[in-house]
DNA sequence: CATATTTGACCTGT
DNA sequence: ACAGGTCAAATATG
């Protein structure tokens, strides 16, 4: 194909990636400002929406760099694909010595990360909307602060290969430098409410839909613990994840755009309407519809409320 | 009880 | 040999 064409494409993507990094930093800045205006437990939703935005940036960046990765490496003589090596983690014990025997068995199974896409962001929080699990920490030469290693929580149940490394910035210990390596292939569980304007909302009436959801329709024990109800995927999530492969960057970007607008409006509004519905199975569905003012929001930081309250509200 | 973090040992590319 | 990335036992957390 035309090399110049692909060259231009990848340079555009580079620019897009830069824009996204910048946007992410803007979101961070906004988060700072929001915290000032709404100290402590003031307005949780705005802050969590920022988290949501951050997640979207991360996803979009991931997609951009993913395309680059495919472009750059697909045609090359890719060496061995990351094959499954020693996938069974809980292996059987050996009859050998106790502790080092397992280390012996591990020999050859050690997998170091291959050269893969990565990008770095600077943020005031380590929170980006994804579920991470820390698996290591290391003091790096000539640095003041240790580097922490995280992998996607769904590495083993969904085979997600995303990892990230977080390090406090030396210049500004308030900020975290985060390097993302690899993109998410899992359907991560969304833990924050999403705010979207209903398509049929009448103009002039401030209306927001707050929805809670988990990604799969089969709630786990943990889900049930944290959320007494089984929330179905919202329209937003369907838009993002209905395809088998997380589809288009443009989808991701447009959802970003709409979320920015929602955030703006959300800040200015003084009255909100929450609509949550469950339709996890074909047969069962339930909905909640209520109005509330900002000052009377009873949700705590976890956006958690108990079942009796729900029953009352859903009447 | 299950799941997450800490931490030192282990592994690999340079 | 070294630095940095990863593993997994011990420990913490809820």
Summarize the structure.
The chain is α+β, with helices and mostly antiparallel strands. It has helices at 3-37, 44-74, 99-106, 221-226, 235-241, 249-268, 307-314; strands at residues 118-123, 132-138, 147-152, 163-168, 176-181, 194-196, 209-211, 271-278, 286-293.
Task: Please provide a written account of the structure.
- The chain is 37% helix and 17% strand.
- Helix 2 packs antiparallel against helix 6.
- A hairpin with a 7-residue loop joins strand 8 (271-278) and strand 9.
- The strands form 3 sheets. A 5-stranded antiparallel β-sheet has the order 1-5-4-3-2. A two-stranded antiparallel ribbon has the order 6-7.
- The protein is globular and about 40 Å long.
- It has 315 residues and is an alpha+beta fold.
- Among the domains are: 7-37 and 45-73; 118-181, Single Sheet (N-terminal domain of TfIIb).
- The protein binds a DNA duplex (14 and 14 nucleotides) through residues 89, 99-100, 102-103, 106-107, 109-113, 133-138, 140-141, 147, 149, 151, 153, 165, 221-222, 225.
């Amino acid at each position: 194909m035309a090399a110049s064409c692909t060259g231009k494409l990848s340079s555009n993507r580079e620019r897009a990636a830069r824009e996204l990094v910048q946007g992410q930093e803007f979101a961070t800045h906004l988060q700072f400002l929001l915290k000032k205006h709404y100290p402590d437990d003031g307005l949780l939703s705005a802050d969590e929406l920022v988290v949501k935005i951050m997640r979207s940036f991360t996803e979009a960046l991931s997609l951009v760099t993913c395309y680059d990765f495919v472009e750059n490496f697909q045609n090359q003589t890719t060496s061995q694909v990351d094959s499954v090596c020693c996938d069974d983690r809980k292996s059987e014990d050996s009859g050998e010595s106790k502790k080092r025997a397992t280390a012996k068995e591990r020999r050859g199974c050690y997998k170091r990360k291959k050269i893969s896409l990565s990008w770095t962001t600077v943020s005031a929080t380590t929170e980006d909307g994804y579920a991470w699990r820390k698996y290591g920490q290391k003091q790096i030469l000539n640095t003041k602060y240790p580097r922490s290693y995280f992998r996607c929580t769904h590495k083993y149940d969904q085979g997600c290969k995303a990892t990230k490394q977080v390090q406090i910035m030396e210049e500004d210990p308030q900020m975290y430098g985060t390097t993302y390596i690899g993109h998410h292939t899992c359907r991560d569980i969304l833990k924050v409410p999403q705010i979207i304007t209903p398509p049929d909302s009448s103009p002039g009436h401030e209306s927001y839909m707050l929805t809670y959801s988990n990604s799969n329709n089969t709630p786990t024990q943990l889900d049930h613990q944290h959320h007494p109800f089984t929330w179905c995927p919202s329209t937003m999530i369907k838009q993002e994840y209905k395809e088998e492969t997380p589809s288009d960057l443009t989808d991701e970007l447009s959802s970003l755009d709409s979320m920015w607008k929602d955030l703006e409006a959300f800040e200015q509004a003084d009255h909100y309407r929450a609509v949550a519905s469950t339709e996890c199975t074909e047969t069962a569905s339930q909905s909640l519809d209520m109005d509330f003012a900002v000052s009377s929001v009873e949700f705590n930081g976890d956006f958690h409320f108990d079942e009796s309250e729900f029953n009352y509200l859903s009447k």
